[in-house]
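Worked Example 4.2. Consider the chain below.
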Amino acid sequence: MKQNTKTTLLVLALGFAPLPAFAQDTSTTTDTTQTQDDNDGMDWGWLGLLGLAGLAGMRRKEATVVRQDQTTTRR
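Applying the procedure from the previous section yields the following structure tokens:
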């Protein structure tokens, strides 16, 4: 009985999944506005990558372990 219930719920869930798509407006409008591109030919994504590369040197360094052996020799 459990397997049949799971299967039925899965079929219903997958069957109703595309329903919100029917609520969308399907009318088409033409947009005649032109977008202003103020980038002046600069791809700002590269600047962001350079900034991230600069931050890579600021990551935490591993602690330097200094070991000093103090031995005393008795004569």
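Residues 2 and 8 are 10 Å apart (CA to CA). The chain is about 40% helix and 0% strand. Compare this with Example 4.1 before moving on.
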